Amino acid sequence: MARRYWLIKTDPDTFSWDDLVRSPDATTAWDGVRNYQARNFLRDDVRIGDLVLLYHSQSEKAAVGIARVVRAGYPDPTQFDPRSEGRDPGSDPADPRWYAIDLRAERPLRSPVTLDAMRREPALAGMTLLRRGSRLSVQPVEPAEYRAVLKLA
Fold first, then answer.
1. The dihedral of CA 30, 32, 34, 36: what is its sign?
2. What is d(CA 103, CA 66) in angstroms, rounded to the nearest whole number?
3. Residue 134: what are its φ and ψ, rounded to 5°?
4. pLDDT tens digit sequence for 7-22
C-alpha cells in the first residue's frame, strides 16, 4: 500500500511541535480526537510510515514540521480515563468509539508555511485545509500538495 500524507492540527498552547520533539524518543500518542470523520481517518486510513504535516492552529496558523506515523490506529485510552478531559462515559471498551495514533517527529520545516502562503499557492487550491468550513483536525493531503508545502518551506 502506498504511503499517504496527512495534515494534523494542534493548538500550540496545548501541544506544539517543540513538545513533540521533547517527548521521549520524539514520539507521542496522538489522542483526544473527538470528531467522527477525523476518528475514521485515524481508525481506518492512517498507516505506519505515513507522513504528517504538523500544523499549528489558533495563533500561528502554519505547518511547522513533519512527523511519521509509528503506530496505526488503536483505541484511544483517554476515552476510558476518568481523569481525562477526553473521557467518554458512553464509549465501551469492547467497542471503542475513539482512536489514537503514535507520531514521531522527523524534522521541522525550514520555515513555517503559513495559511496565507498556502492560500496564495495555486498548487494548493484544492487542499482540504483551504476549503471553506474545513475544521477537521486530521485531514488527508494529496502527494502533490505535500510536495508543494515542502517547496514553500
1. positive
2. 10
3. -75, 115
4. 999 999 999 999 999 9
Q: Taking all residues of the chain, what is their mean pLDDT, rounded to a whole number?
A: 96
DSSP label at residue 44: I
Please give the sequence-ordered ranges of beta strands (E in DSSP) within the chain, or none if there are none: 5-10, 27-30, 51-56, 62-75, 99-114, 138-141
Burial of 20 (0-12, 13-18, 19+ CB in 10 A): buried
Cell 478531559 sits on residue? 85
Q: What is the pTM of this model?
A: 0.94
Spell 46-76 as b/e; 16+ CB within 10 A means b.
Answer: beeebbbbbbbbeebebbbbbbbbeebbebb
SS3 content of the chain, % helix, strand, coil (to 5): 30, 35, 35
Of 9, 121, 2, nearest to 61 by C-alpha is 9
What's the CA gap between 123 and 143, in Å, rounded? 11
User: Looking up cell 496505526, which residue turns up?
Assistant: 72
One-letter amino acid of 42: L
**Of 115, 103, 107, which is closest to residue 74 (Cα–Cα)?**
103
